[in-house]
Write a structure and sequence with these properties.
About 65% of the residues lie in helices and about 5% in strands. It is an all-alpha fold and about 475 residues long. Helix 1 packs parallel to helix 9, helix 4 crosses helix 6 and helix 18 runs antiparallel to helix 19. The radius of gyration is 24 Å and the shape is flat.
């Protein structure tokens, strides 16, 4: 489903689906939009984004963008909340902040940036929008009469931030377009985000000159885009004066040549490899290597290896991976994950399991290895081993919904129905689907298995979730 059709469905579903669990603004003209309200609104928008096919739900790419984002957040003096960074598979150059600390990044931004510092500069700018509470300020300035419902508000924010297609869909139906223009960041907001962003960038060890360099190149390249400016320029007004202001801010700072990380180059190559069909992706990387048109030969050969794996040419993929290891001259969990995936795809079960075990000794917190190994164990009818792996990881990452989904699959294979539906419910909680979680726990209690402790624990958890669901519904009724 494209963004356009998603928003059409959202607009038609305003009275019940979206509005049902959104917070009450109250008199937003006289009260602040609280951090809790921001987070709930952000979670509601994220629930819709995760359901769309353009959401790039790849563990390696997500780990990279979150590692980069958290490095920047750690250097922000005003960061008092959690941040979640995610990727959208869209060739448009864009990044956007949502309420509650959610920051989206289009794949087009990573593919078109010429350095990791340029990507970091855009993320630092978006982090500043969140830490300076620009969205909350704009919402608090709107009068209640101007906001027909919080569901429409969610649509408007998504339209204003995500893509030009989303904006067109919202405008076509009118409900959200009346609000959208009021949610664009002002020049004052942009200047403040630039100022704070440059500070974050410099403190995090990136090249602070990269922000002005990237914005200047983006503005000068505007004419080559069909239909006008890139999405980022539509949602973030960019002027020559603003670029000059950034240049003045960084002029006194020493030039810092910051090498790109190997992960940045590899993830860029992976994004490129998965944009097109396997055949076209193989041709693209073969041509770039033949013509020596690349920023990193190791990354280009990695992209070719990923493309060859997708094309099921395992022998050639292995040769390319071996070449990457020599060129990279440093270890990386990205390379280990590809090695294990190649062994799995080739049907080498024992070798693949050994590969995953060894890789996890070195990179125990790398989620892609955990997910892949658990999936491989389940595919080979080894649910006990998969369950142990997942539950060990849950001790560290208790909010990872994918681990709960793997846990649910493991319990299902073991025919433990209460535990299966309880785990599925916990996954839904972390995905923002409270009604779905309540339903799963109700099914769990009717499953007919489980001991006294499990039943009591599930009943207690169900009461908690019902209370939370009722609170959300009360807020929705107030909003009406």
């Amino acid at each position: 489903m494209r963004w356009r059709y998603l928003l059409i469905l959202m607009l038609f579903a305003v009275p019940r689906a979206l509005a049902e669990s959104l917070p009450d603004l109250g008199d937003v003209a006289q009260s602040d939009f609280s951090p809790l309200q921001e987070r709930r609104l952000g979670e509601q928008i994220m629930r819709e984004i995760r359901a769309d096919r353009s959401f790039y739900d790849d563990a390696e790419a997500a780990d990279y963008i979150n590692t980069l984002g958290e490095r920047l957040v750690a250097r922000s003096p005003d960061a008092r909340q959690n941040f979640d960074f995610f990727l959208i598979q869209d060739g448009q150059i864009n990044a956007f902040a949502l309420p509650g600390g959610f920051v989206g990044v289009n794949s087009g931004l990573l593919l078109n940036a010429q350095s990791e510092s340029e990507v970091a500069s855009v993320l630092a700018h978006e982090i500043a929008h969140v830490t300076q509470r620009h969205i909350a300020r704009m919402l608090a300035q709107q009068k209640q009469s101007q906001i027909t419902s919080l569901a429409a508000l969610a649509v408007a924010i998504l339209a204003a931030r995500a893509s030009s297609q989303a904006a067109q869909a919202a405008a076509a139906f009118g409900t959200a377009s009346a609000i959208q223009s009021q949610l664009n960041f002002t020049r004052e907001h942009e200047r403040e985000a630039d100022r704070v962003g440059v500070q974050i960038l410099e403190q995090a060890g990136f090249d602070p000159h990269a922000m002005a360099t990237f914005f200047d190149r983006l503005q000068r390249a505007t004419r080559v885009y069909e239909g006008g400016a890139p999405s980022y320029l539509r949602t973030h007004p960019l002027t020559f004066e603003r670029i000059a202001d950034i240049q003045n801010r960084v002029e006194h700072l020493p030039y810092r040549q910051v090498p790109d990380s190997l992960e940045f180059q590899l993830i860029r190559a992976k994004l490129r490899a998965e944009m097109e069909s396997p055949r076209d992706a193989v041709a693209y990387f073969e041509q770039s290597l033949a013509e020596r048109k690349f920023l990193s030969e190791a990354a280009s050969r990695y992209g070719l290896a990923v493309s060859l794996l997708r094309a099921q040419d395992h022998a050639r993929a292995r040769k390319e991976l071996a070449a990457v290891r020599k060129l990279a001259a440093q270890p990386s969990p990205v390379l280990e994950t590809l090695d294990c995936r190649l062994k799995t795809a080739a049907g080498e079960g024992a070798a693949a399991f050994a590969c995953y075990r060894e890789a996890l000794k070195t990179y125990p917190n790398y989620r892609a290895l955990t997910y892949d190994y658990a999936n491989a164990l389940l595919q080979n009818r080894r649910p006990d081993a998969a369950l142990k792996l997942v539950e060990d990881r849950l001790q560290v990452y208790a909010e990872d919904y994918k681990l709960y989904l793997l846990q649910a699959r493991s319990y299902a294979m073991l025919n433990k129905r209460l535990a299966q539906h309880r785990a599925q419910g916990e996954a839904y909680v972390r995905m923002g689907n409270i009604p779905g979680a309540v339903e799963q726990l109700q099914i769990a209690l009717k499953s007919g298995d489980g001991d006294f402790y499990q039943l009591s624990s599930t009943e207690a958890r169900l009461r908690e979730l019902r209370q939370l669901h009722n609170e959300l519904r009360k807020e929705q009724r107030k909003e009406r």
